[in-house]
């Protein structure tokens, strides 16, 4: 797997020390809640679950650790690649509270999109995001994604139903 580099972030394969780094970040309830997990269901991270998280990235052909200032801050990946239709879905997670609100997620998305629409020659990238995750919605919009629709009341989080927002970006839109 190749390393992808931006001005402030590096998307790289796992390396020695990532298990300990992921373990130290823990599972911040407010961050994990943005992924659709209710506050009472957020698991405590263990060395074993941190190791499994790193192993999942190792085994995924299109997943990277997001590193900023030589520290692991999250992950990003392309899922469900369909080379016939030249499409994939994308997922990103920033686990370091200190990395939020600094544009690192948007930059990681842009770096990955350059790879997806460049060397991988994809035509379409789709994302799904919970409607209450406004930080993620803003990041996707900043990177050029367009809202396509909503799946109403698709996720039950913290005792309430929430919509999933479906967004996409096409290669000619990214080229602009």
From TrEMBL:
The keyword Lyase is assigned to this record: no
Spell out the GO cellular component terms annotated for this protein, sorted alphabetically and separated by semicolons: ribosome
Signal peptide residues on this chain, from the entry's feature table: none
PROSITE patterns membership: GNAT
Query: N-acetyltransferase domain spans which residues?
Result: 21-171
- Note the InterPro entries from the entry: Acyl_CoA_acyltransferase (IPR016181), GNAT_dom (IPR000182)
Mind listing the UniProt keywords for this protein, alphabetically?
A: Ribonucleoprotein, Ribosomal protein, Transferase
Transferase listed as a keyword: yes
**UniProt GO molecular function:** acyltransferase activity, transferring groups other than amino-acyl groups
Protein name from the UniProt record: Acetyltransferase, ribosomal protein N-acetylase
Task: State the organism named in the record.
Answer: Rhizobium leguminosarum bv. trifolii WSM2297
């Amino acid at each position: 797997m190749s390393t992808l580099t931006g001005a402030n972030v590096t998307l790289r394969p796992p390396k020695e020390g990532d298990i300990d780094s992921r373990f130290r970040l823990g599972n911040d309830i407010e961050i994990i809640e943005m992924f659709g997990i209710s506050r009472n269901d957020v698991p405590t991270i263990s060395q074993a679950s941190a190791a499994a998280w790193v192993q999942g990235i190792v085994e995924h052909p299109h997943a990277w650790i997001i590193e900023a200032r030589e520290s692991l801050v999250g992950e990003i990946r392309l899922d469900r690649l369909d080379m016939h239709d030249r499409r994939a879905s994308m997922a990103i997670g920033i686990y370091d509270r200190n990395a939020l609100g600094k544009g690192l997620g948007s930059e990681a998305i842009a770096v990955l999109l350059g790879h997806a629409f460049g060397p991988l020659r994809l035509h379409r990238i789709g994302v799904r995001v919970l409607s209450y995750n406004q930080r993620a919605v803003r990041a996707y919009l900043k990177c050029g994604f367009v809202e396509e629709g909503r799946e109403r009341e698709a996720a039950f989080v913290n005792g309430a139903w929430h919509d999933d927002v479906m967004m996409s970006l096409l290669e000619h839109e990214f080229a602009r």
